[in-house]
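Subject: mismatched residue count in predicted assembly?

I count 165 residues in my input, but I want to confirm that the predicted structure covers every chain. Input:
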Amino acid sequence: MNRNIAIYPGSFDPITIGHMDIIQRASRLYRRVVVAVLRNPDKRSCFTAEERVDMIERCCANLMNVEAVAFDGLTVDLARAQGATVMLRGLRAAGDFEAERTLAQLNQRLAPELETVLLIGRPEHSAISSSAARELASYGQSLQGIVPDEVVKQVLAHFHPASHS
Ligand code: ADP
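Triage response: the counts match. Full output below for your records.
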C-alpha cells in the first residue's frame, strides 16, 4: 500500500454507491483516505454537512483507514492541514473530464505538491449521481443500488418523513 494520505473532496449530497466504490478502491491504495464534505454555503444542499459526514462514516465503518470531515474554503488548504499529498476524484464518463481537468490544473497552481489522481468509475455506476438519488427519492422510488444500504432509509425519509418514521 502507498504510504500517502489522500483527500477525496466532494458534495456527497448524499453519498452514492459510485462514491463508495471510489472510497473502497482508494482505501486499498492509500494509508489514509479523508473524505472531505464541502459545506457549500452558496450552493444549497439537501443534507447538512454534518448529516453527510455521518452518512459517510456509517457507510465506511468497516474501512479502518477512511474518515470523513466537513470543510469550507479551499480544498488545497484542507489537504495541507491533513498532510495529504493526493487529491482523489472520480470520473464517471467523458462529460466529467473537462471539469476535473480545470479543477486539477487550478489546484496545480495553488499547490504544486498536491497530485490529483482520477479513478475511473465502474461502467455500471456511470449514471449514478447524488442528483439522480435526490430525484428518485423525491418521487418515492427505490434507492436500492443507488445509495449504500446503510443510508437508503435516511435519504427517503428526508423527502417523505411520514412514510419512513
Ligand atoms: P462535486 O459536487 O464536487 O462534483 P460529488 O459529490 O458530486 O462532488 O462527487 C465527488 C467526486 O466523485 C467527483 O470527482 C465525481 O466525479 C465523483 N463521482 C461521483 N459519482 C461518481 C460515480 N458514479 N462514479 C465515479 N465517480 C463518481
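The first helix runs from residue 17 to 29. Marking this ticket as 'not a bug'.
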